[in-house]
Design goal:
By secondary structure, the chain is an alpha+beta fold. It has two helices and two strands, in the order E-E-H-H. It has one domain.
Amino acid sequence: YNFPQGRVTDHRINLTLYKLDKVMEGDLDEIVDALITDHQAKLMAAQGE
């Protein structure tokens, strides 16, 4: 996170949001959805190997 910019970044999945205030209030849906999508994509890729 970067307070001056109001930014939250998850480098594992290349996600950047400028909603730090909302995330700190518990609004994690967008982050969790992105993590789930990334995890599912990795599972699908592993099945294709």
